[in-house]
Sequence to fold (151 residues):
Amino acid sequence: MFPFIFKLSGKNLLFIGGGNVAKRKIESIIAWSNPEITIISKELHPSLQQLLEKHHIKWIQSSFDEKLISENYDFAFICTNDKSANEQAATILKRLNILVNICDNKELSDFYMPAVISYNDIMISISTKGDSPALSKKIKEILSEKLKGDE
Fold:
């Protein structure tokens, strides 16, 4: 395992699932960059519906099906509440050489989303390698407060 910071502007990102987990990940990503995003999901979180027009977000209102993968995606985020469907989607996407992050399966994930802090010219990413997103968030909050206190 090795941490990277990617420029995601102009990259094609795929989200399987359009609920709260996808919403949090998408909001975090678009706060830092401007990628092309496609969401495949029968339903969409209300906050994501509002983002469709503001950002490069395409919504395919459907369950995941390999036939829907018509583009080359750089990264995929699998965020449904169906563990079996998540694993099936991961298997298909990996076969297509797409790197995947699965919200409920760190072993099958190729990468993790860190908690991120930006302060002046410094960017800090915090990861527990998928073990404890809540701990990453807590460390982020502590560091953010410390950095603000040093101003």
The two ends are 34 Å apart (CA to CA). The chain has a mean pLDDT of 90. The helical segments are 20-32, 46-54, 83-95, 133-149. The CA atoms of residues 3 and 125 lie 9 Å apart.
